[in-house]
Amino acid sequence: MPAEQRMAFLSEPRVGVLAVEWDDRAPLSVPVWYDYELGGEVFVWTYADSVKHRLIRAAGRFSLTVQEEVLPYRFVAVQGPVTSIEPGTSEMVHRLASRYLSEKGAQLYVEKDYEPSSVTIRMRPERWLSGVFLNSDDYA
Q: Which positions of the chain have pLDDT values less than 50?
């Protein structure tokens, strides 16, 4: 996938799978909501006391993979260093939830799930993997 196409694909509201090192285990891989603007950083939100936050802080980096589950199958995976971990705000959580929910749904999500002790984590994509496969009507 050309660079502009993969960045545009990543900027679409998809559920991503975040992966991060986990000591002597297989990496932690969890589905997440994320935000990304073309040429910018990946943004995720999580609870400060989560395993995900603890592992990302220790590793200083993570990867995120997003995919399309209909033909032609496409995916984009990015890896990179954490550029910041900051306290989460209700405004940031609303921005993120608005990518995935209606305005009413995003407001309800913030009311029910936002915690002042949450964090926002930003990652600068350094490595990109992407692909399109089974791009044929033969498989439809």
A: none
